[in-house]
């Protein structure tokens, strides 16, 4: 399920400190920038940031927005990371803020090669929600997928009550494609899961990828 509700909170990490917006003040390696937008950039995911990804994904608002029900153990997350390293059909991007290179989220494209289609997902750091980062991170990921990844379509699932997520995805180029009635859960209630998709011609532009490659 793509998207998390537009909420901000502080989440304690394993050492008990407050992780509000990523990894401020840590001695992390410099990210390898892949594609830069106005405020954000896609970078190669770093294993040293995996703990932060895990914290973001286990935030209650993230669990709610993604349609999950329970937190995921560290061991399960670490095993998934190892599997994805060798999976050419699972493209993951870390999202950083350009001004300070701070990680603010993760996006992914789960690719079906025969169809040249991909499912899009996104997770933002809890304190980075409400800043319109979801829209730009989604647009940058679609930009890569369409203009370098040669995708013919991208799609996502989002719970109907997640209005902030739906609005961000629509601004990035996704369109309503259908619904699965009462197949999701939101605060104890059965809700519809909306399907959204995007074609290359839906991309709102301009393309940062085309500009970067001089096309």
UniProtKB/TrEMBL annotation:
Region (Disordered): 1-25
Gene3D superfamilies referenced in this protein's UniProt entry, alphabetically: 3.40.630.30
Lineage: Bacteria, Bacillati, Actinomycetota, Actinomycetes, Kitasatosporales
SUPFAM superfamilies in the record: Acyl-CoA N-acyltransferases (Nat)
Keywords, in A-Z order: Transferase
Segments forming domain N-acetyltransferase: 53-200
Keyword Transferase included in the entry's annotation: yes
Protein name: N-acetyltransferase
Keyword hit for Transferase: yes
Molecular functions per Gene Ontology: acyltransferase activity, transferring groups other than amino-acyl groups
Pfam families in alphabetical order: Acetyltransf_3 (PF13302)
């Amino acid at each position: 399920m793509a998207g998390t509700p537009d909420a901000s909170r502080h989440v304690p990490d394993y050492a008990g400190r407050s992780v509000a917006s990523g990894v401020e003040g840590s001695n992390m390696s410099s990210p390898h920038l892949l594609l830069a937008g106005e405020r954000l950039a896609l970078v190669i995911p770093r294993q040293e940031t995996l703990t932060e990804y895990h914290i973001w994904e286990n935030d209650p608002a993230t669990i709610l927005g993604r349609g999950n029900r329970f937190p995921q153990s560290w061991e399960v997350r670490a095993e998934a990371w190892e599997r994805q390293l060798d999976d050419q059909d699972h493209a993951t991007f870390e999202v950083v803020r350009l001004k300070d290179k701070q990680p603010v989220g993760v996006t992914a494209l789960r690719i079906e090669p025969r169809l040249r289609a991909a499912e899009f997902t996104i997770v933002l750091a809890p304190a980075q929600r409400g800043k319109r980062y979801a829209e730009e991170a989604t647009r940058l990921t679609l930009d890569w997928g369409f203009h370098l990844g040669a995708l013919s379509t991208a799609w996502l699932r989002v719970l109907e009550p997640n209005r902030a997520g739906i609005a961000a995805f629509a601004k990035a180029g996704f369109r309503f494609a259908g619904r699965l009635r009462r197949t999701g859960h939101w605060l104890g209630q059965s809700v519809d899961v909306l399907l959204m998709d995007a074609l290359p011609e839906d991309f709102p532009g301009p393309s940062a990828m085309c500009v970067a490659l001089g096309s």
